[in-house]
Every structure is written in structure tokens, then in C-alpha cells.
Amino acid sequence: MARDRANEAGGERADVYQRVTDRIVAAIEAGAKAGDWRMPWHAGADGRPAAAPVNAATGKPYRGVNVLALWAAAHAAGHATGIWATYRQWQEIGAQVRKGEQASPVVFWRVLDGRGAEEAGDEGEDEAAGRGRRLLARGYSVFNAAQVEGYEPPALPVLPEAERIVRADAFFVALGARVEHGGARACYVPGQDLIRLPPFAAFRDAVAYYATSAHEHVHWTAAPGRCGRDLTGRFGSEAYAAEELVAELGAAFLCADLGLAAEPRPDHAQYVASWLAVLRGDKRAVFTAAAKAQAAADWMHARQPGAGQGSEAAPDLAA
């Protein structure tokens, strides 16, 4: 318990924005140096989909920038599981963090709105300011299930790939976007409110097709009347690079939700340098990008049959 308090206190003293950003930047740089452009949100070398991180004690999924931070941590350490918890939480469920294990930073949000502090979710400070509120980020430390003794991860059911493909197809059809197939380039055309995708047969497999479709559908959510996402005020001349990062992260969140293995896209090489420039120049940039990506994924989930129109996902309290 003393160690847990020390870890949490150390996280609060440090600049959590910089700590998390540095971890993510290092993971992106590692993929670029390896030459395969495999980012922390992509499938592992074994082709296994990136699992959405969850908290071992609460069973709640992490969201927003915490998903990305924990993917980066797992990617760097080679952890196969996406189960995490604080030192104290592991003790409370009868497990013990092994001596010498390195903790990973995540974020706990508090919102100040003139009526005192209350817990809030993984939204960026820019969104909170737009509603007359201010969000404060507090860092704390978690450990992966691979770093503890006395814990057996639960066996989770895995749908056969054919069923996951059917589910992904139904997911995107339910959104009702106008999609045309043809040509060699995937893109969203704002002026026509149109998603263009190469023919299905042009993709390596069905998973690659739906991962690309997810990326373009996230761009599609930027339109007014959907998420209304305009990054020019926040990022200025770097808005295009930031929007591409939002689409990439949003697609990764959706692929994790749908059990699909996101793979590097051919155009990653041209985008990685611009993403790194944005993240290195603004330690809060990845927080905003992840929040926007999470909002886009939530918006699409809310429009699935039985989800309830306009509903919002439960706020993330860093699980």
C-alpha cells in the first residue's frame, strides 16, 4: 500500500501530459524505425487484434487517451494481455505486483465547474472549456496482469473471424453513410459527404477492408450534424495531420471493439512524421486527438440497433 501511494504521488507530481505523450511518441518512433510502420494500436506481430484495455478490479474498459497509453505500454513491454490495475487494486483481488516491475501512467480526470470538483471522463480540456468547465488531469500508475503473481486472467470467448466480419459489416451498414466503391484510393469527400473505397477484392482480406472503412467512417463523423469536428481552431496549420490521427485512433478503437486486427496502412509512412511533429510540439495534442477519436467511436456505437439514439457512453473514470 505504501508503494501504491508513492507511485500515485509521484504520478501527480510529474507532468502527466508529458509522461503520457513521451510514452506514445516513443512507441510511434519504434514502429517507424523498425520500418514496418506498426503503431502501438496495431495488431501484434502474431496478427492478434489489439485488445481494448480493461481494469482487473472493476471490469471497466479504459477509454480515450488511456487506451492509447496502455497500448503503447503493452507494445513496448511485450504484454499479451490488456488487463491492468493499480498496485492497491491488485492486492485487493489477491494478487501481488512482482518486485522491480515498472508501472505505466494513466490519467484520472476531475472537472471544475464552479460547484467544486467532481469526477469526469476522458474528454480534452478544450471540450470542457466550451461548456464553461475546466478539466484537470491527474496521473496514477497501473501494472499489467503479466507483471503480477497470483492472478489468472479469465478465459474470454472469442468469436470466429467469420462472425466478426459479419458483425463489422452490419455495424457500418447501420450508420447509413453513402459509400461508393471504385478506384485505388480510400478517402472521405466532405463536399459530397461521400466515402470512397477501393473494390472489396482490392484488399488483402476482409479485415483490411473493414479497418480501412472504419478510418474513413471516422472522417465522415466530422461533418456538422454528426460530431461536428473542426480542428482548425485547436491545431491551426496542423489540423490536417491531427484529423488523420483522430481517424487512425478512432478506427483502432472501433477495430478493438469489433475484434478486428488493425494493420498498418500503406500511407502511414507519409503521416508518421507529421503526427510526431504535432505530438512533440504540443504535449496535450494526443489527449485531444484521443478524446475526439473516442467521441467519434461512441457516436457510431450509439447509432447501432438497440443502442438508443443520441446516447453517450458511460464516462471514463480511468477505470
Q: What does this entry show, briefly?
A:
By secondary structure, this protein is of the alpha+beta class. The chain contains eleven helices and ten strands. This is Zincin-like metallopeptidase domain-containing protein.
The figure for the number of domains is 2
Query: How confident is the prediction overall: mean pLDDT?
Result: 83
Total DSSP E strands: 10
Q: What share of residues is helical?
A: 40-55%
What order do the strands of the largest sheet run in, or round the barrel if closed?
A: 1-2-6-4-5
Structural class: alpha+beta
Poorly predicted sequence stretches spanning 5 or more consecutive residues:
1-14, 122-130, 309-319
Radius of gyration from the alpha-carbon trace, in angstroms: 19 Å
> Which H/E pattern describes the elements?
HHEHEHEEEHEEHEEEHHHHH
Strand content: 5-15%
Question: How can the largest sheet be summarized?
Answer: 5 strands, mixed
Instruction: Describe the global form.
Output: globular
Main attributes of the structure:
single chain, 319 residues, alpha+beta, five-stranded mixed β-sheet, 11 helices, disordered N terminus, disordered C terminus
If you had to describe this structure to a student in words, what would you say it looks like?
By secondary structure, the chain is an alpha+beta fold. It folds into two domains: 2-149, no CATH class; 161-301, no CATH class. 44% of the residues lie in helices and 13% in strands. It has eleven helices and ten strands. It has helices spanning 2-13, 16-34, 65-77, 87-92, 125-129, 161-175, 206-220, 232-235, 239-258, 268-281, 285-301; strands at residues 54-55, 83-85, 96-97, 104-112, 117-119, 134-144, 148-149, 179-181, 187-189, 194-197. The strands form three sheets. It has a five-stranded mixed beta sheet with strand order 1-2-6-4-5. Helix 7 packs across helix 9, helix 9 crosses helix 10 and helix 9 crosses helix 11 (285-301). The chain is globular, with a radius of gyration of 19 Å. The two termini are 19 Å apart. The relative contact order is 0.16.
